[in-house]
Design goal:
3-stranded antiparallel β-sheet; alpha+beta; 7 helices; two-stranded antiparallel ribbon; 244 residues
């Protein structure tokens, strides 16, 4: 309820600013002034995110392919001031988002999360969040997701108020607008697998041939018994759990 009240109040107060920005975008980038895209909400449910446009449409003939090519000076200014985010207040009013929470990301990212990272969808996404006031796009994806899960586990009204206040400072200082070397932020391609847990490693079976361990999946059937004619008989043992 507090989200709805604050969002409605901000929409009323900032209506003249939003109208001015919409006119600037329409004049500089053409119509429509709004950018709409499907994003993942709470529990991964899709919703339509609304923002002001900051980029030209892709155009191969004009060389407008990457974000850096398509991002205009007006778009850079809107992003640096976070004015492009003002329409997301309508998403809050509709109940798709909260004022504070993990940022809404693309649906194709859902299968790329680890089990822990997927917990960011236990709450509604936010206009701003813990990651946005601790580095924003200058953070790695892992750092962002760690902060998202930290928010999920420790969120309180006091924390939300603190994040909103810190967001004002971050916007005024124009911090963390883009990642190093890119115009916006790199795509999330998934988290590389870490080292195998000890309990899992202990159950692995290996075929050791002349001192070289070759991993074997027991579910694939019995260990091979084939010999090459005329070859020297190798020393073969089966090693269970990493020990001979």
């Amino acid at each position: 309820m507090l989200d709805l009240v604050v969002a409605l109040l901000l929409i009323v107060l900032l209506a003249p600013v939003m109208v001015a920005v919409a006119l600037l975008v329409a004049a500089g980038l053409g119509r429509p002034a709004l950018f709409r895209q499907c994003r993942s909400g709470r529990h991964g449910e899709p919703f339509e995110l609304v923002k002001f446009r900051t980029m030209r449409p892709p155009d191969l003939r004009r060389g407008l392919v990457s974000d850096a090519d398509r991002l205009t000076p007006l778009g850079r200014w809107l992003r640096s001031t976070s004015l492009d985010e003002l329409p997301t207040l309508w998403n809050v009013l509709r109940g798709d988002m909260s004022l504070v929470g993990p940022r809404p990301l693309l649906p194709e990212y859902l299968p790329r999360y680890s089990t822990r990272q997927a917990r960011r969808h236990e709450v509604r996404p936010g206009v701003t969040g813990l990651a946005q006031v601790h580095g924003r796009n200058q953070l790695s994806w892992k750092e962002k997701f760690d902060l998202d899960v930290e928010y999920v586990d420790t969120r309180t009204l006091r924390m939300d108020v603190s994040i909103l206040a810190a967001t004002v400072r971050t916007v005024l200082h124009r911090e963390g607008i883009s990642a190093a070397g890119v115009a916006t932020a790199p795509a999330f391609l998934g988290t590389p697998p870490g080292p195998m847990p000890p309990t899992e490693a202990a159950t692995q079976t290996a075929l050791v041939v002349d001192g070289v361990a070759l991993p074997v999946d027991p579910s694939e059937g019995p260990l091979p018994q084939t010999r090459i004619a005329g070859a020297t008989t190798p020393r073969v043992t089966v090693r269970q759990g990493g020990r001979r």
